[in-house]
Amino acid sequence: xxxxxxxxxxxxxxxxxxxxxxxxxxxxxxxxxxxxxxxxxxxxxxxxxxxxxxxxxxxxxxxxxxxxxxxxxxxxxxxxxxxxxxxxxxxxxxxxxxxxxxxxxxxxxxxxxxxxxxxxxxxxxxxxxxxxxxxxxxxxxxxxxxxxxxxxxxxxxxxxxxxxxxxxxxxxxxxxxxxxxxxxxxxxxxxxxx
Length: 194
Fold this sequence. Notes:
7 helices
């Protein structure tokens, strides 16, 4: 094999250009200190850029956020809508409880709706107690299974199947249910002006 001269720089150490230079030697601690200083310089240089970019990004994010007052107004509108729906739902539940209580004592379904305003209470228990009180006063008449009206049967007269408002007022006053009596009197006045 022919001798191939070694490539310059590979596997060789460069020869000092002048004989006056001394080779410097460093301890491990000195090298660590020099490296740490260089790393600190580079970190400081890039840390400043990082902080600037982070600040710019935060500023852009803040610009894209909606106005807090606008959000507060939207939340207030939604709360108001929810509150209105809750009130409406409560009213429907209350009316349903009144109808159930009236049906439970056997009130004619055709008359139950007109009796709703005479039933008071805010809980099913209060409503049932009021319906029972109205029934005990004779103000509620159960549905009477009578013969069909027509063909010789004129049907029930108001005196036979249902009390008049005047009779209901008298019964309520006799029983000491003055709030109910007042409510019935108002109802009677409304019907007179129709």
